[in-house]
Design a protein that fits this description.
It is globular, with a radius of gyration of 16 Å. It has a single domain, classed as Rossmann fold. With 162 residues, the chain is α/β, with parallel strands linked by helices. Helix 4 packs parallel to helix 5. The chain contains 7 helices and 6 strands, in the order βαβαααβαβαββα. InterPro entries: VapC45_PIN-like.
Amino acid sequence: MSSESPLMTSEPPPASSWATPPEFYLDENSVSRSIRRLLTSLGYRVHSPAELYGSRDQALGADDDDWLPRVGQQGWVVLATDFRIFERPHEYEAYLKAGVPVFLMPAESKIEERVALIKVCLPSMCSAASQRGAGVWRLTAHGAEPYTAPAARKKRRRTRET
């Protein structure tokens, strides 16, 4: 992205800007050196599936039902690209039970786009994460926007019908 991109309005906040800065977990679909480098250069702690499971080989293909509770116990904030987790009711339930904040990047985006989105959205990501609890946001050029999962919409419809 060029330096004239509408995404870049100011520098992203360093971890020292927050009383308790969030620690980020990069799921296996969003792990990249560029994203890790950006966040760590700003002083944030970043965790990966390999760290959570002991090695990259052990982490590959871990079920969302397994890693979400582990991440929730640590109090980490998830950066992901897998919108499908919120379409499958059993995985959506695992997410709710884990109580983690999740920030979703467009799955088809390039690494440079993801880095630019994180730079723009980091202030709102940190603010949302400080509320401590489940929530899902989509990272957009205008900031982090609440995301209502299809599984949540289906669940609400069923509740209204009963």
